[in-house]
Amino acid sequence: MTKIAGKKILITGGAGGIGRLMVKEVLNRGAERVYLWDILDKEMDEFRSASPHSEKIVTRRVDVSKKEQLVEGIGAIGAENVDILINNAGVVTGREFCEHTHQDIDRTMAINTNALMHLTLLVMPAMQKRGEGHIVNIASAAGLIGNPRMSVYAASKWAVIGWSDSVRLELEKAGSPLRITTVTPSYIDTEMFKGVKTHAISPVVKPEQAAKKVIRGIERNKIVVRMPASVYLLPIFKGLLPIRWFDVVVGRFLRVYRSMDGFKGKN
Prior knowledge:
The chain has helices at residues 17-28, 41-50, 67-77, 102-130, 151-173, 207-219, 234-240, 243-253; strands at residues 8-12, 33-38, 57-61, 84-87, 134-138, 179-185, 224-227. By secondary structure, it is an alpha/beta fold. The protein is built from eight helices and seven strands. The longest helix has 29 residues, at 102-130. The protein is globular, with a radius of gyration of 18 Å.
């Protein structure tokens, strides 16, 4: 079991959405310090000022797509002072692939995929040295199936799932006590996915529920955290059904392939 109390936790994308809620959750569980990284300066300052645990929150403006800012940020903290890393920052464009720009592709992959690898590489050696640490990678159910208007986003999250699980296996093979948790939520009811529509069988997840489930997953050393429950069925359906049957079940019946038709997203 991973204890939150007394730990120093770094959360990227922590100024809004489930990031902010996870900051609250770990502070309520007795975290010693939370390093909150985001590019939303005003939101970070307002959140810290309003928090009853403001003295435990250390904010820093970090654009995770910039490797040099990650290096500087960890240099300021000290890699040895990160007990738990929650790689939460993410973006989605929500367009047909041919409507993307090259900048859209580079930005999505830099934030959703590359940043997780670079940041983990910066803190993992110190975790290994002291024989303790937990790394949490927020991926997506989009990393399990394709979906129209999510091609680049899905690609970034497929990469996260493959990388995250590979690192877990390396650590287990080496007998390391470090823990890796991969989170694959469906749509979460935040500004990031404003306008999406889902089937009642696979509802949009409430952010409070998502944050609590992630933190409980950390405490219980879960290898994978999925939400809602229907996401657990996706690998089974995809492995057993012919592709066209899978498309019928997921695309037509569950209407996943039309879920982004009304997407507005965050400005």
